[in-house]
């Protein structure tokens, strides 16, 4: 007899490790379970013996990892009786908030930086029917305003300062360990607010945690009392967590907040990260590091990944590859390592940046056989 189980999202899959009860009405769009794609051509180009995987989070329902956090945050908001959610966003959080609010039948208010959000993300926020408020300021201004207004209005904040967001997002680490059979040696990801690097560390730590008899040193997230442990650790190790930032928007490299962040990677155009302390702790505990990439490196990595591996991610996501390429070349990430790169969002989110960097423009010809043949011969 064959048994088929319909995949119904990450809360169902990992419900014993997430803050839900049997009565909880789960707000899901089937998020999670994203492909872990082993790169074949780029390692060969590099000439380095590394096992390089990308976790393609762009295949989530709204096209970014934000869905992992949003299914959990909206599920809990609804359970607690909230009728409206609010967030500041560089685009992807607003798309996810809008979609899950639509699914739940509640209202989403989204504050986005006027003119600094990728076209696909704006289309999503509007199409899903959220209330889109464009502010004449950046993400950090929006975040400050959201915190202020949430103190005075009956709305639930669904930015990553909402702890349920990180609970949902930690499942990406579970999926990676479940699929590889162990934790990778290095996990590289782009850092904006630093919620995601923190969430991954929670996930890896929980899987390595043995509860009261925990051998994981200084696991500050559970303090040896992890309530999500059932039957001992799943993994015996945790990766070094490597966070890459865009040079124009790199508070973790400067060592202080940045007031006027600028980068083509708009999803990480954040100068005042909300998970500042947590991310430093992750870096220390895991033995990882932060580094920065220029906009040119980021765009080159995005193009390389698309052309050589057939994986199209948005610019911010390519920051993880841009940084990893450098660290693999230099040997900081040594040969023999297993490395996972998070590709946070889908390339279709930002068609303008993609088209602008393609030097090969489409040719226009007459609609006749000879013209097509000539075009093909010209290109060969
Ligand atoms: C939100 C986001 C990031 C940054 O994640 P943080 O948790 O803010 O560090 C990176 N890339 C994309 C595509 C995003 O949407």
Automatic annotation (TrEMBL):
<dbReference type="GO" id="GO:0009088">
    <property type="term" value="P:threonine biosynthetic process"/>
</dbReference>
<dbReference type="Pfam" id="PF00291">
    <property type="entry name" value="PALP"/>
</dbReference>
<feature type="domain" description="Tryptophan synthase beta chain-like PALP">
    <location>
        <begin position="27"/>
        <end position="345"/>
    </location>
</feature>
<dbReference type="GO" id="GO:0004795">
    <property type="term" value="F:threonine synthase activity"/>
</dbReference>
<dbReference type="InterPro" id="IPR026260">
    <property type="entry name" value="Thr_Synthase_bac/arc"/>
</dbReference>
<dbReference type="InterPro" id="IPR004450">
    <property type="entry name" value="Thr_synthase-like"/>
</dbReference>
<feature type="binding site">
    <location>
        <begin position="192"/>
        <end position="196"/>
    </location>
    <ligand>
        <name>pyridoxal 5'-phosphate</name>
    </ligand>
</feature>
<dbReference type="InterPro" id="IPR000634">
    <property type="entry name" value="Ser/Thr_deHydtase_PyrdxlP-BS"/>
</dbReference>
<dbReference type="InterPro" id="IPR001926">
    <property type="entry name" value="TrpB-like_PALP"/>
</dbReference>
<dbReference type="GO" id="GO:0006567">
    <property type="term" value="P:L-threonine catabolic process"/>
</dbReference>
<comment type="similarity">
    <text>Belongs to the threonine synthase family.</text>
</comment>
<keyword id="KW-0456">Lyase</keyword>
<comment type="function">
    <text>Catalyzes the gamma-elimination of phosphate from L-phosphohomoserine and the beta-addition of water to produce L-threonine.</text>
</comment>
<protein>
    <recommendedName>
        <fullName>Threonine synthase</fullName>
        <ecNumber>4.2.3.1</ecNumber>
    </recommendedName>
</protein>
<feature type="binding site">
    <location>
        <position position="344"/>
    </location>
    <ligand>
        <name>pyridoxal 5'-phosphate</name>
    </ligand>
</feature>
<keyword id="KW-0028">Amino-acid biosynthesis</keyword>
<feature type="binding site">
    <location>
        <position position="92"/>
    </location>
    <ligand>
        <name>pyridoxal 5'-phosphate</name>
    </ligand>
</feature>
<dbReference type="InterPro" id="IPR050147">
    <property type="entry name" value="Ser/Thr_Dehydratase"/>
</dbReference>
<dbReference type="GO" id="GO:0030170">
    <property type="term" value="F:pyridoxal phosphate binding"/>
</dbReference>
<dbReference type="GO" id="GO:0004794">
    <property type="term" value="F:threonine deaminase activity"/>
</dbReference>
<dbReference type="GO" id="GO:0003941">
    <property type="term" value="F:L-serine ammonia-lyase activity"/>
</dbReference>
<dbReference type="InterPro" id="IPR036052">
    <property type="entry name" value="TrpB-like_PALP_sf"/>
</dbReference>
<keyword id="KW-0791">Threonine biosynthesis</keyword>
<dbReference type="GO" id="GO:0006565">
    <property type="term" value="P:L-serine catabolic process"/>
</dbReference>
<comment type="pathway">
    <text>Amino-acid biosynthesis; L-threonine biosynthesis; L-threonine from L-aspartate: step 5/5.</text>
</comment>
<keyword id="KW-0663">Pyridoxal phosphate</keyword>
<feature type="modified residue" description="N6-(pyridoxal phosphate)lysine">
    <location>
        <position position="66"/>
    </location>
</feature>
<dbReference type="GO" id="GO:0009097">
    <property type="term" value="P:isoleucine biosynthetic process"/>
</dbReference>
């Amino acid at each position: 007899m064959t048994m088929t189980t319909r995949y119904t999202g990450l809360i169902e899959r990992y419900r014993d490790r997430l803050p839900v009860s049997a009565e909880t009405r789960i707000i899901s769009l089937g998020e999670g379970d994203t492909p872990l794609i082993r790169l074949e051509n780029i390692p060969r180009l590099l000439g380095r013996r590394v096992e390089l995987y990308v976790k393609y989070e762009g295949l989530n329902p709204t096209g970014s990892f934000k869905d992992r956090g949003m299914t959990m945050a909206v599920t809990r908001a609804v359970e607690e009786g909230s009728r409206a959610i609010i967030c500041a966003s560089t685009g992807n959080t607003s798309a996810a908030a809008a979609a899950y609010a639509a699914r739940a039948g509640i209202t989403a208010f989204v504050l986005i930086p006027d003119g600094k959000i990728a076209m696909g993300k704006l289309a999503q926020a509007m199409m899903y029917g959220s209330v889109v408020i464009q502010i004449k300021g950046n993400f950090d201004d929006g975040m400050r305003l959201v915190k202020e207004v949430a103190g005075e209005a009956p709305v639930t904040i669904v930015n990553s300062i909402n702890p349920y967001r990180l609970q949902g997002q930690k499942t990406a680490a579970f999926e990676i360990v479940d699929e590889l059979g162990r934790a990778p040696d290095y996990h590289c990801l782009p850092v904006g607010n630093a919620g995601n690097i923190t969430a991954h560390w929670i996930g890896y730590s929980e899987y390595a945690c043995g509860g009261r008899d925990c051998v994981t040193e200084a696991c500050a997230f559970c303090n040896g009392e992890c309530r999500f442990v059932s039957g001992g650790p799943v993994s015996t190790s945790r990766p070094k967590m490597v966070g890459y930032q865009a040079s124009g928007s790199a508070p973790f490299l400067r060592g202080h907040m940045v007031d006027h962040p600028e980068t083509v990677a708009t999803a990480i155009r954040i100068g005042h990260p909300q998970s500042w302390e947590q991310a430093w702790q992750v870096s220390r505990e895991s033995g990882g590091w932060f580094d920065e990439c220029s906009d040119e490196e980021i765009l080159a990595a995005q193009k390389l990944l698309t052309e050589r591996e057939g994986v199209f991610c948005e610019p911010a996501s390519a920051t993880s590859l841009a940084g990893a390429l450098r660290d693999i070349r230099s040997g900081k990430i040594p040969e023999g390592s297993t490395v996972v790169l998070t590709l946070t969002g889908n390339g279709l989110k930002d068609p303008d940046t993609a088209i602008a960097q393609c030097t090969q423009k489409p040719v226009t010809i007459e609609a006749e056989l000879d013209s097509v043949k000539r075009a093909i011969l010209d290109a060969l």
